[in-house]
């Protein structure tokens, strides 16, 4: 991420906005924090490791990144995070619920502890962050945008059934809240990503699993963390003001069709499948 300006948006697009980003110490969260800071926002970034957050701060324009150690599963820590952000910055315009994750394992081997670990880290933490920020900042200020990162494809997450259930619940939560909280001027959205080449993704999944995921994508490649950051920045900008309740899917087409096109089994290189009949 060299340079100090966005390569997509105009300078000052997010001037004056205060954004709270979870998991801002690496990957998609870090890329989004940097993009927001470059566009003029003040970012409150949280994660459990202060070292990783300090590295993010060093990549942002000076004074634009406020690092706070917080485990998003813990009620007292989340309340302190939100209260501290309000004390220092007076408002929260955007909440990007980015922290999360899951492990890959056959469903029959997942214990109750493993199941609860993933539901707590993802679905429950998203509710905790969302309800705390809404009650303490966005409902009083009568405005705000809440965005959750979820997953694609949507037709089942083999080997990550627990993660798929959490993400489906999060998307439904955003839809329901979009309706309920429209009266407070709060927008609620999900951005459902297919594989994104973050360090965690590259280190976590075996290379053959990664290649299989890419080859199941019509565009033939994974996404980048910058591409996700641009989408979150767009939604935070006035360009995103009419979006609420939606699930924006970013996955190179994987959710529409699993595989490269044309499919070798059915068509030739020009995608011809049959002769035209007269
Ligand atoms: C194959 C078809 C694919 C179709 C196409 C799919 C395309 C999908 C594209 C999207 C893919 C998504 C990618 C990402 O999200 S990548 C980046 C996200 N980041 C992470 O995932 C973070 C990585 N962190 C971890 O992996 C952590 O270990 C985890 C968050 C999973 C849990 O950490 P925590 O510290 O909270 O918990 P513990 O390690 O103590 O574990 C608690 C219990 O959970 C169970 N467990 C944990 N790991 C495993 C495992 N690998 N296998 C089975 N069970 C596991 C277990 O019960 C643990 O308790 P015990 O240790 O006591 O047994
Ligand atoms: N990469 C991909 O292919 C995809 C990723 N996603 C989702 O996007 C999000 C970001 O993924 P990615 O950037 O790849 O992964 P990373 O592992 O780089 O980012 C996850 C971040 O969340 C933080 N985090 C984890 N647990 C907690 C916690 N309990 N409290 C506070 N912070 C926490 C981590 O920091 P720390 O350990 O310091 O707390 C880390 O910085 C995740 O929710 C992931 O599931 C969705 C679809 C695809």
From TrEMBL:
Top-level class of the enzyme under EC nomenclature: oxidoreductase
InterPro entries on file: NAD(P)-bd_dom_sf, Peroxisomal_t2-enoyl-CoA_red, SDR_fam
Subcellular location: Peroxisome
Alphabetical keyword list: Fatty acid biosynthesis, Fatty acid metabolism, Lipid biosynthesis, Lipid metabolism, NADP, Oxidoreductase, Peroxisome, Phosphoprotein
Enzyme Commission number: 1.3.1.38
Catalyzed chemical reaction(s): (2E)-octenoyl-CoA + NADPH + H(+) = octanoyl-CoA + NADP(+); (2E)-decenoyl-CoA + NADPH + H(+) = decanoyl-CoA + NADP(+); (2E)-tetradecenoyl-CoA + NADPH + H(+) = tetradecanoyl-CoA + NADP(+); (2E)-dodecenoyl-CoA + NADPH + H(+) = dodecanoyl-CoA + NADP(+)
Predominant subcellular localization, coarse grouping: other
Subunit-structure text: Interacts with PEX5, probably required to target it into peroxisomes.
Function: Participates in chain elongation of fatty acids. Catalyzes the reduction of trans-2-enoyl-CoAs of varying chain lengths from 6:1 to 16:1, having maximum activity with 10:1 CoA. Has no 2,4-dienoyl-CoA reductase activity.
Protein's name according to its UniProt entry: Peroxisomal trans-2-enoyl-CoA reductase
Classification lineage: Bacteria, Bacillati, Actinomycetota, Thermoleophilia, Solirubrobacterales
